[in-house]
Structures are given as C-alpha cells and as structure tokens.
Design a protein that fits this description.
The protein is 68% helix and 0% strand. It has 87 residues and is mostly helical. It has one domain (2-86): Serine Threonine Protein Phosphatase 5, Tetratricopeptide repeat (Alpha Horseshoe). Helix 2 runs antiparallel to helix 3 (48-63). The longest helix has 17 residues, at 9-25. The protein starts with 8 loop residues before the first helix and ends with a helix.
C-alpha cells in the first residue's frame, strides 16, 4: 500500500497490477484486513483497479487462499481490462 501512495504513475500502475494479483491469491491477516479494505475504499474513484482489488480481496477472504497460482490467461485478461479502463 505504501508503494501506491505518492509514487510515479508508472510505478503505481505496476504496483496496482501486483496488488490485484495478491488480492486474488491470498487474504491479508485478520489484523491487516480492515486497513487494506479502508485503503482500497479510499482509492476507489481515483484508481479503478481499487474496486477490482476490493472485490478479489473480499472473495479471497471469504473462501481462503488459492491453492494454485493464477493462470496466464487470467493475468492477460487483467491487462486487457486495465487497457480498457484507461480509454
């Protein structure tokens, strides 16, 4: 989350991609979860990826960590969605 605060646009875009993947792979600890959700809700309008991250985080928290890494197609779809959101 610190990397998304006051960083360059390119760095922030890359960090959102990593954050998106992490949110879908494993939930944060119960102590960190409220802080992550608050951070994402505060970034909702400024960063469209925050909404996506929040949805993935909720699902990961509800169902637990994934047992397999994301498939290459899943990562490719995220990049396509990001390009559509920029337009």
């Amino acid at each position: 989350m610190k990397q998304l605060t006051g960083n360059s646009r390119l760095s922030a875009e890359r960090t959102w991609e990593i954050f998106w993947l992490c949110c879908g792979l494993f939930p944060p600890s119960p102590q960190l979860y409220p802080h992550v959700t608050k951070f994402l809700s505060s970034r909702g309008e400024a960063a469209p990826m925050a909404t996506e991250c929040a949805a993935r985080l909720y699902k990961a928290n509800r169902h637990g960590a994934r047992s397999c890494p994301p498939h290459a197609v899943e990562v490719r779809v995220e990049k396509i969605n990001k390009m559509v959101l920029k337009k």
